[in-house]
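Reading a protein record of the kind used here takes only a little practice. The record below shows the convention in full:
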Amino acid sequence: MFDLNTGATKGSVALPASTLLGQTSLCNDIAVGADGMVYAIDSLAGHILRLKPGGSGFEIWAHDPRWDVKGPQLDGIAVLADGTVYANVFEGDGLYRVVVKPDGSAGTITKLQTSRPLYHSDELRAYGQDKLLMVEGETKGTLDLITVTGDNAQVDTIKDGFEGPVDTGTAFLNMLGVFAEFETNLHRERQLEGIKAAKDRGIYKGRKPSIDAAEVKRL
């Protein structure tokens, strides 16, 4: 753990020992919920870990037999605004939702039906109320926007060409610029749709003049 202002080390928290196929523990990604809960991926143990606010150590929070494989499996993790936890897998194809019960324990684990197969899924981040950002790929990386609806996940690649195997640092450094452009274009499209609808109803009057016509004539 580090101080975000100074970069100074604040402490460290040990991971529970792995018992999966003789592999050691490996923390691959971390996400923090709005309630202060810290969730971590242990890629080589097949576990999602949790650290409670003020806690001194991680506990095994969620596990699924589908994650019990040799080599890296679980990879990225994110928490959406409603508190639901999502995780993906690196070796294989899978995006999972983990419901958080009222008492904070892990509930049903569902493998979502993605609109296309995922390839070497890596970092995962929450975006808005029901969307996720994800980097995937090996020799060439892509930045994906994932929209979750029920048990389905629409995967749209919005930026590609990142150097592999998983240049997530570059991807996420560029992410803000990419999404600023994405949101600008989306806003423009919605604005044009609104103007068209207003014209169709005969109520569009255009933008209010910002320069006084009489003053322009005088000049």
In short: DSSP finds two helices and 13 strands in the chain. Helices lie at 168-200, 213-218.
